[in-house]
Write a structure and sequence with these properties.
Length: 224
């Protein structure tokens, strides 16, 4: 059985005028299905860059990326977008909910992009809101929700399409510690009970301690 995610000799460079900035250096990384992994490291060390590459939001400059055994390094953009929609669920620090849409509509969005029939999408979205404990807030808009409630809606949106992996970039960064703790409980439960594969970028030692595996990045290299 091959890894769900496998990065081989991955390098990322940004060109800034005359200069080249080497942000990821020869990264080797494997992630198995069912793992809950934390990525830690100082600000600017390359964590988000690595996650964006894993989530097909960005491409590596050199190296190869295998997703579920397939080399996806050189697939065209529209194919990557489709894999992203089907296989990856994202959660961000700043939630990124559509402000004028209700919680329910926000959660339905990934299914809408897939062309799922409306009734089916609505039912799936309602179930997912219930799973993350905010079924009663389905018709609220983001500004009518607390930070923790917004993040639960964002997690429901990440989960609704049954992605192979959830990538969360500082998901508790905008939350107070108690609410952050509750959101982490939810991730841990999704991993434990449903075997969801989850990658969480965090600065919070409390949070990384709860993950089975901790990957540390320093200056663009994995150090442990
Ligand atoms: N689009 C870009 N163009 C040029 N440089 C970039 C770009 N995106 C990121 N960088 C640089 O790459 C380095 C790594 O950035 P990245 O966002 O991956 O760090 P991070 O570990 O997620 O930091 P933080 O903890 O602050 O979120 C930084 O030096 C950043 O300035
Ligand atoms: Mg970052």
């Amino acid at each position: 059985m091959s890894s769900l995610i496998k990065l081989e000799n991955v390098t990322k460079k940004y060109r800034l005028g005359e200069n080249e900035l080497l942000v990821l250096k020869d990264i080797h990384f494997q992630l198995d299905a069912g793992e809950m992994t934390a990525i830690v490291g100082m600000s600017g060390s390359g964590k988000s860059t690595l996650m964006n590459i894993m989530g097909f939001l960005d491409r590596c400059t050199e190296g190869r990326y295998f997703f579920a055994g397939d080399d996806v390094s050189s697939l065209p953009e529209h194919t990557l977008a489709s894999i992203r929609n089907q296989k990856i669920g994202f959660v961000f620090q700043s939630f990124f909910l559509l402000p004028r849409s209700t919680a329910l509509q926000n959660v339905m969005l990934p299914l809408f992009y897939r062309g799922t029939p409306h009734i089916e999408a609505e039912e799936a979205a309602r179930q997912m809101l219930a799973k993350v404990g905010v079924a009663h807030l389905a018709h609220h808009k983001p500004h009518q929700l607390s930070g923790g409630q917004q993040q639960r809606v964002a997690i429901a949106r990440a989960l609704v399409g049954h992605p192979d992996v959830i990538l969360a970039d500082e998901p508790t960064g905008a939350l107070d510690s108690q609410t952050g703790h509750e959101v982490m409980e939810l991730f841990a439960e999704l991993n434990r009970k449903e075997g969801r594969t989850i990658v969480i970028i965090t600065h919070d030692k409390e949070i990384s301690r709860r993950c089975q595996r901790v990957v540390a990045i320093k200056d663009g290299s994995i150090v442990e």
